[in-house]
Amino acid sequence: MSTMTASAYDAVLISPTQLLALQAAEPVVLIDTRDADTYALGHIPGAVNLRETFTYLATSTPQGLQELKDTFAAHLGAIGLSGAETAVFYEDALNSGYGQSCRGYYLLTWLGYPKVKVLNGGYSAWKAAELPISTDAVVPTPAIFPTQLATTDVMLTKEDVIEALGTDTVLLDVRDVDEWIGDSSSPYGKDFAPRKGRLPGAKWLEWYRFMKPSAQGPVFKSPDEVRAECATAGISPADTVYLYCFKGARASNTFLALKQAGFADVRMYFGSWNEWSRDDKLPIESGLPLVKFPKKPALALAA
User: Is the confidence at residue 79, as pLDDT, over 70?
Assistant: First the structure.
């Protein structure tokens, strides 16, 4: 019999022991998002390897989004997701995989898949709990992914972001600091993308700030801690928040953090800087994002 509570069933983030209980209670497809060589060295027993969860680059044109949908419907069906199973994603550690397990969570949320979870702490937390590991390659039983599901309103196009410029919508950049200040264009190299900078008017919270150390490795901060981090940038749960990073992985990590913290209106520009920077017609801010304080008048000496 399962020992999982009702709240554990509802939560997206689950611990290694909760994952074991879930696997004992219902059909689960466990998805390892790491590269194939790392997967081969050791993984959670029964996990299938789907590296494309992290590597696929998308554009936000109608054709690009349809290709994204078709590609992952094929991949996810091939690893056994029919709609009846719970999909559980994991990576090595939440601060080392650029949010790749959360990218799987975001994609399935967009595709309308009913049951999606992420292993909090990833493979590092599984090993820290001294649970079994395997080097056996898993051959999945293919299924037909449910393409008839209605997509959810979490995906932004380039045009959506253009319309949000200069409005009360919060554009939240969660990239690494070297990208935010315009020193680098991407995690793949300083000049991987043609332009460096950020969206005009964007606020910045580096994606690492939504995690904290634990005995099992980095895990997500609590909802109160996530809200506190957002407050430092003047962002509240009542705001409409548009997230972006370079290709939608780190922003997926933040998407999950904000959703678990009660931010109701959160969407992501999945094309992110990889798409925006390649269109010279689109505006960017460049240079150091420094605050300029007015000079204080000199105090007059008392007579």
Answer: yes
- Residues composing the chain: 303
Strand order in the sheet with 116-119: 13-14, 116-119, 86-90, 28-32, 48-49
- Residues 188, 192, 193, CA angle at the centre, nearest 5°? 125
pLDDT at 3: 47
Q: What is the pLDDT of residue 142?
A: 96
- Tens-digit pLDDT profile for residues 161-175: 999 999 999 999 999
Q: Which of 116, 267, 276, 92 is nearest to 193 (CA)?
A: 276
Beta strands 28-32 and 86-90 are parallel
pLDDT bin (cut points 50, 70, 90) of residue 10 is low
Contacts 24+ apart (CB under 8 A), 125-133: 125/15, 125/16, 125/214, 125/216, 125/217, 125/219, 126/16, 126/19, 126/44, 126/90, 128/215, 128/216, 128/217, 129/16, 129/17, 129/216, 131/16, 131/20, 131/44, 132/45, 133/42, 133/43, 133/44, 133/45
The candidate with the shortest Cα–Cα distance to 247, out of 36, 76, 55, is 55
Q: Helices (DSSP H) in 117-187: which residue ranges?
A: 122-128, 158-164, 177-180
